[in-house]
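assembly run, all chains below
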Amino acid sequence: MKNTLKPFFKNNKALFLAYDHGFEHGPKDLIGLGTRPEAIVDLALRGGYTGLILQKGLAEHYYSRKVQTKQLSLIIKLNGKTNLLTEEPYAALNCSVAYAKKLGAQAVGYTIYLGSEKEAQMFEDFGKVEEEAHRLGLAVMVWMYPRGKKVTPELLPQLTLYGVRLGLELGADLIKIKDPGSFELLKQTVELAGDSKIILSGGEKIAEEEFLDLVRKSVKAGVAGLAVGRNIWQRENPFVITEEIKKILWN
Ligand code: FBP
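ok done. output:
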C-alpha cells in the first residue's frame, strides 16, 4: 500500500465518516448529530474512524491540530455543488490542495460526474488536483458518480464500472462509488480498480440491518473501505452502528 494511504487504513480497511452534506444537500439532511459539527468530530474520534471528510470551512472551525494528534486523519473535499442546479452537474473547486494541506489534511477529495456534459472540465480540474496532491505527499480520493441527462438508470451499473476504470487512469488512490447494485458488480469494481482502492459510499439512510448487509456484501466483494455519512449520524445512536460496522470490517 502507498505510504500516503497508510494513515487511513487499519488492517487493510478504511472507515471514513463523511460530513459534507450541509454543502451538497443543505440543512434538510443535517439530522440528529448532523446538526452539531463538534459532535461529528467527537464521533469520528471516539468511534475509531480512520478518516473524517469535511469541506474546508468545517475543517477551519472544528478540526484542530489537537484532533490530529489524537490520530484522526482528515480528508478535505476540494469541490462541491448544491442541489439547486437543474443543468448538467459540475462541482466547482473551492479550496486548493496547498490550503488543504495547511489545514492538516492527509488526503484531498474531488467529485467527478461522469457522463455530465461538463465532465471535461472536471477531468481538467482533477488532473491538476491529482498532480499537486501527489507532489505534496497527499492521497487523492475521487467521488466517481455517473450523473447527467445521458445517465439513465439502465446505464448506471455499467457506468459505475466505467467510472472505476477512469478513476484508475486519472490517478486516484481511492475511488468512491455508490453501490452498483449486485455482489458481482461490486467484485468487478474491485478488479477494475487495480492498484487503486474502492471505497463504498453509504447513500440515503436505510434500515439498519439492510445497511449492515450492504457492508457485509461489500467486504466479501473485496472493497477496501467505506465512506458513510447519513447511515451513521442520522441514526438515534451513531456509536452503536459504528461498532457494528467495525465488527464487519475488522473482525
Ligand atoms: P452518504 O453516506 O450520506 O451517502 O455520503 C456520501 C456522499 O458522497 C457525501 O460525501 C456527499 O455529500 C453525498 O454523498 C452526495 O450525495 P449525492 O451526490 O447523491 O447527493
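The domain at 3-250 is CATH 3.20.20.70 (TIM Barrel).

The chain has eleven helices and ten strands.

not gonna interpret more than that til we talk
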